[in-house]
């Protein structure tokens, strides 16, 4: 079996390795890289907002064949009404 001394040394080495790697970042990011990441996040948020708004508008404006309170159902009926008024 493994000796206690060997296990203590192994735990100490793992602890030191974790401490060293956690302490130092790999490298600092440049300003342009930070700006690029910011712009990417902003672009994603705008896209998500547009998708959300599109879904909300689909729920509000649903296509139907019924005209809404005095509004004609389509352009053809509007033109027919205008021609009818002219003939009178």
Largest sheet: none
- Low-pLDDT windows of residues: none
Cα shape: rod-shaped
> Can you count the beta strands?
0
* Strand portion: under 5%
GO biological process, one term: intracellular calcium ion homeostasis
Family: Belongs to the parathyroid hormone family.
GO molecular function, one term: hormone activity
Signal peptide: 1-22
Describe the structure.
The structure is a single chain. The protein has 88 residues and is mainly α. Helices cover 72% and strands 0% of the residues. It is built from three helices and no strands. The longest helix is centred in the middle third of the chain and has 30 residues, at 31-60. The protein is rod-shaped and about 110 Å long. This is Parathyroid hormone. It is found in: Secreted. Belongs to the parathyroid hormone family.
Topology:
Layout: H1 4-23, H2 31-60, H3 75-87
Brief write-up:
The chain has 88 residues and is an all-alpha fold. It has helices at residues 4-23, 31-60, 75-87. The longest helix is centred in the middle third of the chain and has 30 residues, at 31-60.
List keywords for this structure.
0% strand; hormone; secreted; 72% helix; mainly alpha; 88 residues
